[in-house]
Design a protein that fits this description.
By secondary structure, the chain is mainly α. Among the domains are: 111 residues, no CATH class; 60 residues, no CATH class. It has nine helices and two strands. Belongs to the universal ribosomal protein uL29 family.
Length: 268
């Protein structure tokens, strides 16, 4: 090292001047003192001990056995989202290698509204449970999620939920059609009509107390006259609409036929 360093020196004006840059085979970082950690303006180190930083408050870990044995958390509703000490895979598999299947629409049609309501919440809990297991497997870094039955189970639960919706939509549609037929055959008094009749009865009672029975009869006659005029007006408007539709149908018959329709009539 001394020979190399002397070879790189040059004498100028009685003083030794470096001709080239001196170098060393040993690492400067390893040989020199350790550099202090970088400090940000807030006085904290740039890098923490862990990936997510040092926790501000350090608390003692809670023993799992103590938590499981406590009666306070034994029947907590959140435990429904976890299967306690049960494997992810099914022990009992069907003939086709599947451990479960979705509810069919025919099976759901035979259930009452209360049973469908309970089944809906059971399926929601099962779906959340399966999603929790799926996320836990992915969080542990396992790439074999596709080889388990979790994707199949999630798909079957979603199918069951969608079929419950279909059955409820069918019942609602049938109810609306039945109401439409009933209203067309025999109109039912709506809540608005009932309130109108109540107000009319109260008005007649006030008129009877103040002016007597003769005033009430005159008011009823005037109301009947106005209703008759209104019904005549509606009949006249309906007659005009029928006349317009008849003229439109007559004008459509006079229009020339298209090539396709004329060719079909000629071939017939």
């Amino acid at each position: 090292m001394a020979a190399r360093r002397e070879a790189g020196l040059l004498v100028r004006n009685g003083q030794a001047v470096s001709k080239c840059r001196c170098f060393s085979t040993s690492s400067i970082v390893a040989s020199g003192p350790a550099s202090p950690p970088r400090i940000d303006p807030r006085g904290r180190p740039k890098r923490d001990e862990t990936r997510y930083g040092i926790p501000r408050f350090k608390t003692a870990a809670v023993d799992r056995e103590t938590v499981e044995a406590s009666a306070e958390h034994a029947d907590h509703p959140l435990w429904k989202f976890f299967r306690d000490r049960q494997p992810i895979e099914d022990d009992i598999m069907g003939e086709n290698g599947e451990g479960s299947r979705a509810w069919t629409a025919n099976e759901l049609r035979g259930k009452t509204f209360d049973e469908l309501h309970e089944l809906w919440y059971v399926l929601c809990i099962e779906r959340n449970l399966l999603d929790t297991q799926y996320i836990e497997v992915r969080r542990h870094g396992s790439s074999q999620v596709a080889m388990t039955t979790l994707p199949h189970k999630r798909r079957q639960v979603k199918l069951s939920l969608s079929r419950v919706k279909i059955v409820l939509a069918e019942r609602r549609r049938a109810l609306m059609e039945a109401q439409a037929l009933l209203n067309a055959s025999s109109p039912i008094a709506t809540q608005k009509d009932i309130k109108r009749d109540q107000k009319l009865a109260q008005f007649e009672e006030r008129v009877r107390q103040k002016y007597g029975e003769a005033a009430v009869q005159r008011a009823q006659e005037q109301r009947q006259f106005k209703l008759a005029r209104y019904e005549a007006y509606l009949a006249e408007q309906q007659k005009k609409a029928d006349a317009v539709e008849a003229r439109k149908a007559q004008s459509n018959q006079r229009l020339p036929l298209s090539r396709e329709s004329s060719f079909m009539e000629a071939s017939a």
